[in-house]
Amino acid sequence: MRDILKIAGIYTALILGAGFASGQEILFFFIRFGTKGFLGLILSGFIFSFIGYIVCDLANRKKIYMSDKFLSFIFQDFYCLAKFIIKIFLFVSYSTMLSATGAFFQQQFVFKNIFGVLFMAILCFLIYFLGTNFMAKINFFLAPILFFGEVFVCVYIIFNRSQKVFSMQNNFLWIKNAILYSAHNLITAICVLVPIIKTLKKKKYAKTGAMIGGFFITLLGMIVGLVIFLNYKFAIKNQIPLLAITKQISRKINLLYTILFILSILTTAVGDFFALCEMFGKKKLTCGLIINLCGIIFAQIKFSNFISILYPLFGFVGLFEIILICWIYLSKTK
């Protein structure tokens, strides 16, 4: 049971990054399509559970517990190109987390965003040197705090503040967005999930944990989505919608959300940083310093631009990876 919850918690924590916790991703990929956005969230959750199950089962069957080897097994002749593209995405994702921290410091504390960027970069760098097991323990510990904390904040908002919802986009693009949202998130999740499996005592339970993790992601996505839906007019004006909404309600709720948001960024940023360093080489210090230096520079791009422009593009890369994984799984397990 502990191994199941460990994978479920880590998987959930990986997805609860800045874009999810801020409400920005939920707004862009789902809620701008109105009520159909909730169907998109259900579809996305199914993809998370299904692909998470397949990845963990496939990795365990083939005894592959390194992300590099797993990617080589999946992409085969296209491995070098795929690895290069995935490295770029992981770097973009990491830079997004740094940018989000900067935007948060600016919106919440009226500090220059560079202070937030440096804070998260240094924190990830320090955690990296404590190893994979330590990272897994952090995510396992933080996952229930983030999940129940976000649920509490969102439920509180639903019962204490709402605005009339006005006209939103209402077409079938919600299907495409749901798939791209899952796909771009799975690029990072797969790179972290595979090496985490080797830390389990009973590795066969990893696939069950991934399915449960997908359910948790769906449930929390629906709750966050409802908050954004009920406060749509206010949400679209801010880079970090939930932060702006909680500020209007209660200082205590805003303080709680502040803590949850930083922790949400941390879980994803650390995962990205670990995956990047593992893929780039064994020289920890040099690798970590170079990634952080480049990340700090790219983090000057506006947080919302990362989500609205770059994430959908990488979604197509993730979609190609998902198709390959399904094809290989079906062909290898007949």
Task: Kindly describe this structure.
The protein has 334 residues and is an all-alpha fold. The protein has one domain (2-332): Amino acid/polyamine transporter I (Up-down Bundle), CATH 1.20.1740.10. It is 81% helix and 0% strand. The protein has 15 helices and no strands.
Features:
single chain, 334 residues, mainly alpha, Amino acid/polyamine transporter I, 81% helix, globular
Task: Give the arrangement of secondary structure elements.
Blueprint lengths: L1 H14 L2 H5 L1 H6 L6 H26 L5 H9 L3 H31 L3 H16 L3 H29 L12 H25 L8 H25 L1 H4 L5 H7 L3 H30 L3 H15 L4 H30 L2
Helix pairs in contact: 1-8, 1-9, 1-10, 4-9, 4-10, 4-15, 5-6, 5-9, 6-7, 6-13, 6-14, 6-15, 7-13, 7-14, 8-10, 8-13, 9-13, 9-15, 12-13, 13-14
